[in-house]
Amino acid sequence: RVKVEVEWLLALADAPGVVELRGWVASRSQRALAARTVRGAGGVDRVINSILVRGEDDRAHGGSRPGDQTA
């Protein structure tokens, strides 16, 4: 059993066999673990990992969450 502390996570099925992950986690290892877990699911051929790491990526994004961005 593995624990991943997720602040916010969304998995989108973009096309058959393709899943995009979006959201915030506490570390790079948790980001990688989320992608590995989804890759191991049946029927998933490709994972687009757009998960951001709190404390690293929030500086580049002005502290906003992916869902908070405006077009």
Describe the model.
The chain has 71 residues and is of the alpha+beta class. The protein has helices at 28-39, 57-60; strands spanning 6-15, 18-25, 46-53. A 3-stranded mixed beta sheet has the order 1-2-3, with helices on one face. Strand 1 and strand 2 form a beta hairpin. The N and C termini lie far apart (39 Å).
Would you spell out the secondary-structure blueprint of this structure?
Elements: E1 6-15, E2 18-25, H1 28-39, E3 46-53, H2 57-60
Parallel strand pairs: 2-3
Antiparallel strand pairs: 1-2
Give a nutshell description of this structure:
With 71 residues, the protein is an alpha+beta fold. The protein is 23% helix and 37% strand.
Structural class: alpha+beta
Radius of gyration: 12 Å
Largest sheet: 3 strands, mixed
Share in helix: 10-25%
Query: End-to-end distance, in Å?
Result: 39 Å
Beta-strand percentage range: 35-45%
